Amino acid sequence: MDYHLDMYFQQEWIDTRLRHNGTGPVLIRDKKVFGLMWHPDVYFANARHASFQDITDDNFLVWVYPDGKIWYDCRISLIVICMMDLWKYPLDSQTCEMRILSYAYPESQLHLRWSERIQPPIDRNMDIRMPDMQLIDIRTGSCNGTYSTGTWSCMTAVFLVEREMMHHVMQTYFPTALIVVISWFNFWLDIDSAPARVSLSITTLLTISTQANAVKMALPEVSYMKAIDVWMGSCMAFVFGVMIEFTICHFAKNQEMHRSDPAPNLIVDTTLTTLFGGEANMEELSRQVDIERQRMNHSNSIESKLRIPSELNNDVPSYFVGSDRLSQKRSKKQSVSKLRDQVTRRALSWTRTLRNLRGRAIANKIDEKSRFVFPMTFVLFNCIYWSFYIVFN
């Protein structure tokens, strides 16, 4: 990352060769004259770009005092590299360093140090403020280093800046938190409103994904996780959890509905047992049905033996012995069969209805618990998140 500086760079040194008998300092404004004078060849080691201001004229001046002291003042614009640590972004504060060295003269020939006469040696204009960062402090120091060519004098200026958080709270944190809250509306929608619940979940998930991508595009790619990544990832996980919760509810409801139906005989026996007052009465009913079935078979065998020919008595009509009783038995048999069919159909219908109600009850129970679990978990996450990144760090 880079930061921009627009500064008045002032240097002071003594050259006894330039002593004069004037009553005051001599002003030099010609760059050619200044070029003929000896002056420190300082440069900014970690500057990406530097330039002198020359509008409307060259912004520099040189004062030569009678005792040979030289005062050099110029206006410079710099773009300086700052090795930022973004793991707490956007809740971070940064330390940016500017290094000033001599290019040709080692420390034995040129020693650089901050002015002790002017305190603080670095001052700033309090009326100039940055929109997204706040300058907390400026510290000065030295960074003399030994290289293969010798020891070189070095000065450092360290800028302590803190990022303004309110912008990110309003533009990132609050909208994403609101999207998470909106996703909880799923818990109050009916379990059968699958299109509405799925649409709401997908819409909130896509919205958070879009915001996360927009935040990443504004930052350099780093190999570690930033605070904003933790927030976005957690919000995305909460919204995705709402989709998982709906899937579980829908599965629980359908799983109960799709269970295999019990055997019809079991349903009929259970239902008839209930209708006829217990297992003893049911056994008696079954025994009577078996006896009637045997009598019907016996009557069929007698029927063929006791036929009375009609030619023996023209006045007597043809009939079968026991035919009325046989019709009654057949009518009873048909009634019992119809009863069993009706009971079977109704029992299956009741069973499916009960399963539907049981499945809906399970799904509604999950929704009711989620209405409490999801908000409380999100509040707990916020407490941990803000405490870790602001209080403890």
Automatic annotation (TrEMBL):
**Which PANTHER family does the entry mention?**
NEUROTRANSMITTER GATED ION CHANNEL (PTHR18945)
- From the Swiss-Prot or TrEMBL record, state where the protein is found: Cell membrane; Membrane
Q: Which PROSITE patterns match?
A: NEUROTR_ION_CHANNEL
One Pfam family of this chain: Neur_chan_memb
GO CC entries: plasma membrane
Keywords, A to Z, come to: Cell membrane, Ion channel, Ion transport, Membrane, Signal, Transmembrane, Transmembrane helix, Transport
Q: How does it sit in the membrane?
A: Multi-pass membrane protein
Establish whether keyword Isomerase is in the entry: no
Transmembrane ranges, per UniProt, are 172-189, 230-252, 372-392
**MF terms in GO:** extracellular ligand-gated monoatomic ion channel activity; transmembrane signaling receptor activity
The reply on keyword Secreted is: no
According to its UniProt record, where is this protein mainly located?
Answer: membrane
Note the InterPro entries from the entry: GABAA/Glycine_rcpt, Neur_chan_lig-bd, Neur_chan_lig-bd_sf, Neur_channel, Neuro-gated_channel_TM_sf, Neuro_actylchol_rec, Neurotrans-gated_channel_TM, Neurotransmitter_ion_chnl_CS
- Organism taxonomic ancestry: Eukaryota, Metazoa, Ecdysozoa, Nematoda, Chromadorea
Q: What is this protein's name?
A: Neurotransmitter-gated ion-channel ligand-binding domain-containing protein
Family membership noted in the UniProt record: Belongs to the ligand-gated ion channel (TC 1.A.9) family.
